[in-house]
Write a structure and sequence with these properties.
By secondary structure, this protein is of the alpha+beta class. It has one domain: AOC barrel-like (Beta Barrel), CATH 2.40.350. The protein has 2 helices and 9 strands, in the order αβββββββββα. Strand 1 and strand 2 form a beta hairpin. Helix 1 packs antiparallel against helix 2.
Length: 212
């Protein structure tokens, strides 16, 4: 009876050890992300449509994690007739246009670390204060370098003055706040395999003693 208890205890201990190791392997590193980028927005009308193509770039030399640059390409915008607001999407089929590339966002610097994402936004014309005020979100869908496999969400607001040369990019600021996470790069799966091997050897030893 005592041998049976020892056997069961050994099995339970091994399973718990392997489970704990697997939990550690699935842990994530969380990175807060709060930054203000100086931005430029270029709107280019798409002929024979009420849609414009938008390109957004941003820069802040002191951005977290050295992600000093931001770009958002292949955005599509048009005025919502019900609200008078500009609506920005990255899939032109939402505006009934086919065959146009899907947009994407990228945060990057001088190194290999990058974040990739998809965004959507709206912007309202504040004619009293002569401003274009926008807001939206960026869903992080991946990354490169130490941010490989990143996921997360950034909320943002953006302000551009309307008192600018209409033939030049609109200059303003984007305020981003949120966080992203990456899988921890730790050798836990290998540890789990080692633990499993040790458990098999230990249990085999117990069984041999029990039946000899």
């Amino acid at each position: 009876m005592r041998s049976h208890s020892i056997f069961l205890g050994s099995v339970v201990f091994c399973l718990l050890s392997i489970a704990a190791s697997t939990t550690k392997a699935n842990a994530q590193t969380i990175y807060p992300f709060d930054v203000v980028y100086d931005t430029e927005v270029t709107l280019t009308p798409i002929p024979s449509t009420d849609v414009s193509k938008a390109f957004v770039s941003g820069f802040n030399s002191d951005a977290p994690y050295s992600l000093s640059n931001f770009s958002s390409i292949n955005n599509y915008s048009r005025i919502d007739p019900n609200t008078g607001n500009l609506v920005f999407v990255q899939d032109a089929t939402k505006f009934g246009l086919e065959g146009l590339p899907i947009g994407r966002d990228e945060f990057f610097g001088s190194g290999d670390d990058k974040l990739f994402g998809r965004s959507s936004a709206t912007a309202a014309f504040d004619f009293i204060n002569r401003k274009l005020v926008g807001s939206g979100s960026i869903t992080i869908t991946g990354g490169a370098g130490r941010f490989s496999g990143a996921t997360g969400i950034f909320n943002f607001s953006e302000i551009e003055s309307l008192d600018q040369d209409p033939t030049s990019p609109l200059k303003g600021q984007a305020f981003l706040s949120g966080s992203f996470q990456t899988p921890q790069q730790i050798p836990e799966p290998r540890t789990a395999t080692t633990l499993f091997g040790i458990c098999v050897i230990g249990i085999s030893s117990i069984l041999r003693r029990r039946y000899l």
